[in-house]
Amino acid sequence: MVPLLRILVCAVWMTVAPPLLSQPAPAPRYRVVIMPKLVGITYYDAVKTGIDAAARELPDVSVTWAGPTQDQVEKQIEMIERLIPTRPDLIAVAANDPIAIAPVLGKAHRAGIRVMSWDGDSQLREFFVNLVDFEEFGARLVDAVVREAGPQGDVALITTSFTAPNQTSWIDAMKRTVYAKYPGLRIVDIRPAGESTEEAYRIAQDYLKSMPRLKAIVALGAPNLPGAARAVRDAGLAGKVAVVGNSTPNLMRGFLKDGTVRTVLLWNAPDHGYLTVHCARLLLAGGLKPGQPFQAGRLGTFTPRKDAISMQVALPVMVFTKDNVDQFKF
């Protein structure tokens, strides 16, 4: 009787109990590495939220976020050298130097790894997920200076480096806009601050002390604009020396609210990460061609355009002011 009872209990348990082992999820089809210029700053933290959102939507893509702790192309080259033997399907890099990084990207490509650039361009890549159109962005920076400081006077620039592809392209576009539209403006100095708020603060302080005719400071690089703004505010020159540039709404909210800064230009940083993942997947799947629209999830339709290297897409320019900055949380 007892053995029969045990058999009945076991039969009932096997009927109602869940299986002890579930089927493993299928392995992702594509392995993608996305490399920023550096990790550990708030701007790229914002970008990564978009990368993570796209990765959740695309279960056939495994995304690894890996970057150096310093904005140096040599560090990126070392990391890519270590990545090549692991044979990811694609590496997307935000280059700190478009020329110096090309040889190692060529090595990756010869090893069968697809190569993209995003944020900072490279001279070797199959696709570029640009931030914004370079010419438009440079022109709008100059237009903001003129709107706030007038069409005549001295302007000083703070950039990240003289090799950062985005900043050099924007500066070239700014110069073309000044020459074509505002001959009374003079770009009198350009200095690099890396990606350092404190170095940008120091440079801006020196500009304010040594250039009595200075009308505006343009600071390029998300960590650099708050440093320049703080220097102007600390010097009691808010409203007298215009501060313009690109940064995130979270970093600039206080400066916009107190009037030190009136205009901040950028793009949607999380959307840039999100778009990069979608483009990486489509490139691997053979779905990116110049002039052929594609869907990028919640962002809608983009159409790649052919450029001097391969092809690219870009995000629209965003403008933050004291009136709209609280609508954005990145």
In brief:
The chain is of the alpha/beta class and 330 residues long.
Main sheet: strands, sense, barrel:
7 strands, mixed
Overall spatial form: elongated
The total domain count is 2
CATH C-level class of the largest domain is Alpha Beta
Describe the structure.
- This protein is an alpha/beta fold and 330 residues long.
- The chain has two domains: 30-130 and 269-314, 3-Layer(aba) Sandwich (Rossmann fold), CATH 3.40.50; 134-266, Rossmann fold, CATH 3.40.50.
- Helix content is 41%, strand content 20%.
- The protein has ten helices and 15 strands.
- It has helices spanning 2-16, 42-57, 73-83, 102-110, 134-149, 165-181, 197-210, 224-234, 249-257, 269-284, and strands spanning 30-35, 61-65, 90-93, 114-118, 128-130, 153-159, 185-192, 214-219, 242-246, 263-266, 294-295, 301-302, 305-306, 311-314, 318-320.
- The protein has a seven-stranded mixed sheet, with helices on both faces. Strands 7-6-8-9-10-15 form a six-stranded mixed sheet, with helices on both faces.
- Helix 2 (42-57) links the parallel strand 1 and strand 2 (61-65).
- Helix 2 crosses helix 10 and helix 7 packs across helix 8 (224-234).
- The longest helix is centred in the middle third of the chain and has 17 residues, at 165-181.
- The protein is elongated.
- It starts with a helix and ends in a 10-residue tail after the last strand.
- Mean pLDDT is 93; it is low at 1-20.
